[in-house]
Design a protein that fits this description.
single chain, alpha+beta, 17 strands, globular, binds zinc ion
Amino acid sequence: MSDRDAVALTRSLLGFDTVNPPGRERDCARHLGALLEGWGFGIAYHEFADGRTSVIGRAGGSGSKAPLCLTGHIDTVALGVSPWTRDPFAGETDGDRLYGRGSSDMKAGIAAILLAARNLSKKLAGTPGIVLVLTAAEEGGCIGSEHLARTQLLGNAGAIIVGEPTSNYPFIGHKGSLKFYAQFRGVSAHGSMPELGVNAIYKAAKAVAKLEGFDFGVRPHPVMGGPTMNVGTFEGGQGVNMVPDQASIGVDIRTVVGMDHKALLSRLKDLLGKEAELDVFSDMNAVWTEPEQEWVQRVFEISGRHLGSRPGARTATYNTDAGNLLKVYAGAPTVVLGPGEPQQAHQTDEYCSMTRILQSVEIYEELIRDWCGI
Ligand SMILES: [Zn+2]
């Protein structure tokens, strides 16, 4: 397979099975790292678990201004239960459509980032430069970027482009995410003598009822809307003739800009009481950059020339790694802009537009030139 242009590279990336779970990003990450190394990039790998590989590539760099970060994730979601009519790993094409798991979300975005980086690689020396952050395990909680944010590998960055699927429309933020399991314990007994036990499912059920009526007490954000909560899982009990001694619920909260996750968690702990043991496994603030911000205006101008009209202030519905990267790149203006089709993410027979892939290479190149002054 050829990696000569962004469409060909997308097809070759689709050939790596990075379905998460289990992930297995290592081979794909090594392939990306080898390409970048061949183009003169400095490379660092990071594995938060065996085979769960993220890669960071760096070129250029000058003291006066921090580099531009372009980021994307290597893993994809599962194929789902519905049968595919296309081979999810072969890169089948039909007209302008390129099919495959992860085509839109987001191997097309990774390929476009890489090709833009390659095209400018010889011009980056002595400029602020770029840092490419290609992560493992974004799907299901942004685990890879969460680990990266605890290393020294990210260095610094002055602005962030997240290549998630937006049909190349620049989104200036997205909601935050706070996800946790709440565990409830009881005492097991025979189902015919419940008075001898303590029922953990009753405790969990009461907690769910409290959460359903929870009021965030937050005014909706003018672009992002209001926060939401969903109880997504409910597990407990080992047999219908037993008093369950264990139950747990999984809670997914999407927050908006300005919300304090610590304060929210302590409110929820008070509400659920001491019986609930909370295990927070995803905690990322909302991402938001004011549309008037200087670099965002440049992004609007540059992408607008390709899109045919100047973009306005919109936010993505989904979460991205930016929530974790901003823990290190604090305050960096951030846009989500990538060639995939947002509606295609996680779909059966997922596809992306090949025209959009080539368009995003041009947009990324212009944004890199603009940032680096080349
Ligand atoms: Zn994605």
